[in-house]
Amino acid sequence: MVGNEFIMVPNEIVHGQRLYTLITSMFMHAGWIHLLGNMLYLYIFGDNVEDAFGHLSYLLFYIICGLAAAFAHIMSLTNPADFYRGVLGASGAISGVLGAYVVLYPKARIITLLGYIIVPLPAILFLGFWFVMQWLYGFFDVSGGVAYWAHVGGFIAGMILAFTFGLKRKRAREARLRL
């Protein structure tokens, strides 16, 4: 398979090998559906979080969330064979964006399809439900090849970074815009 040299293998990371894959794997995807799903979440939530952090800080934020997600995934592994399975995708970093969004814009309305009806839900409810589902999937090990603990780790990292840096930057930006 083309691109295997960019996929993160937990065993290699634990042994200090191919550490660059912690970054490169964040920009790889398992297929078009994986890529489009991630891009949809990034399209809906990413621009507002980027506005709050600023362009360069957002890139740094995104990479830190992706690294936190990778380490959360590695720490969640209990089956020795899983240390040799490659991991790829931006989902952990994007989960960080979701975590930051819930901190920065908890009351923002997310247009949601529930069955056959469209309902505007507050971000805290929509993303809170999403987070609980990721945690439950990870806890009950319904993996199916998805690194749910990476989602959980990225989300928590995003929340922490938003509380630590994002809220202050968002308030400063809003104050500048009011002038």
Q: TL;DR of this structure?
A:
Helix content is 64%, strand content 7%.
What can you tell me about this protein's structure?
64% of the residues lie in helices and 7% in strands. The protein has 179 residues and is mainly alpha-helical. The chain has a single domain, classed as Up-down Bundle (Rhomboid-like fold). Strands 1-2 form a two-stranded antiparallel ribbon. α3 runs parallel beside α5 (91-104), α4 runs antiparallel to α7 (148-178) and α5 runs antiparallel to α6 (123-139). The model has no long low-confidence stretch (mean pLDDT 92).
Strand order of the largest sheet: 1-2
How far the N terminus sits from the C terminus, by CA atoms, comes to 54 Å
CATH class call = Mainly Alpha
Return the CATH architecture.
Up-down Bundle
Estimate the mean pLDDT confidence: 92
Oligomer: single chain
Shape: globular
The CATH fourth-level homologous superfamily: Rhomboid-like
Share in helix: 55-70%
Q: What's the gyration radius in Å?
A: 17 Å
Attribute tags:
globular, two-stranded antiparallel ribbon
Helices and strands, with pairings:
Layout: H1 10-14, H2 21-24, H3 32-53, H4 55-76, H5 91-104, E1 109-114, E2 117-122, H6 123-139, H7 148-178
Antiparallel strand pairs: 1-2
Helix pairs in contact: 3-4, 3-5, 3-7, 4-5, 4-7, 5-6, 5-7, 6-7
